[in-house]
Specification:
β1 and β2 form a beta hairpin. By secondary structure, this protein is mainly alpha-helical. The chain is globular. The protein has two domains: about 35 residues; about 160 residues, dinb family like domain (Four Helix Bundle (Hemerythrin (Met), subunit A)), CATH 1.20.120.450. The protein has a two-stranded antiparallel ribbon with strand order 1-2.
């Protein structure tokens, strides 16, 4: 009788162990499938372009950008592919401005600052920035400086900081998602430049 009871206990233990492992596997899969929250929802497309190590992606994406932009003359960079569209210089300025704002948001959120932050109107920024009056060298140099600062900032964030959230433009986001949006946003615009301008 005692052996039968021990055998049953062993079988139940084995069954419960397998159930636990299955549940842990399912939970892990669901966790990986969920992208870090971003603002607004369509920014999840940018996040999807930045899978893997966040800081490494920030470096690699900008290295690729510098190669692409280095082949474009000032004259060509002042042309738009259609009326009402930005020039390449204006796109670069937009990327610079956006990254500065995103990095500022990331800093505020990482420091557990719960103050809601306002949004910004990208077209209004581009309209008054006069990017076409600048040289490609000047724009590329500023962009590189901004990216170096973003990398230095994100290198200081630990897992807890990356998971912290804040509100910008009336929508919640994590510090991690902001970093991935910075990279994905850059990759998206470089794809546009390659397909529409070059």
């Amino acid at each position: 009788m005692g052996e039968i009871i021990l055998r049953k206990i062993s079988e139940i233990h084995g069954y419960l162990t397998q159930v636990f492992l299955d549940l842990r596997s399912i939970t892990s899969t669901m966790s990986k499938a969920q992208p870090p929250k971003a603002f607004p929802a369509y920014y999840n497309y940018y996040i999807s372009l930045s899978e893997g190590d966040l800081v490494t992606n920030l470096r690699k994406a900008h290295d690729t950008t510098q190669i692409i932009l280095s082949r474009i003359s000032d004259a060509d960079a002042e042309k738009a592919y259609a009326p009402g569209k930005w020039t390449i210089k204006e796109i670069i300025q937009h990327l610079i401005d956006s990254e500065r704002i995103f990095a500022y948001r990331a800093l505020r959120f990482a420091r557990a600052d719960e103050t809601p932050l306002t949004g910004f109107e990208q077209d209004d920024y581009v309209a008054v920035a006069h990017a076409n009056k600048r040289s490609m060298h000047s724009l590329m140099r500023e962009f590189a400086c901004v990216r170096d600062a973003s990398i230095a900032l994100y290198e200081t964030f630990d897992a807890e900081m990356l998971s912290r959230t804040g509100t910008a433009n009336k929508t919640e986001a994590t510090v991690e998602s902001i970093g991935r949006v910075i990279t994905g946003h850059e990759i998206h615009h470089m794809d546009v430049i390659k397909s529409k301008y070059l």
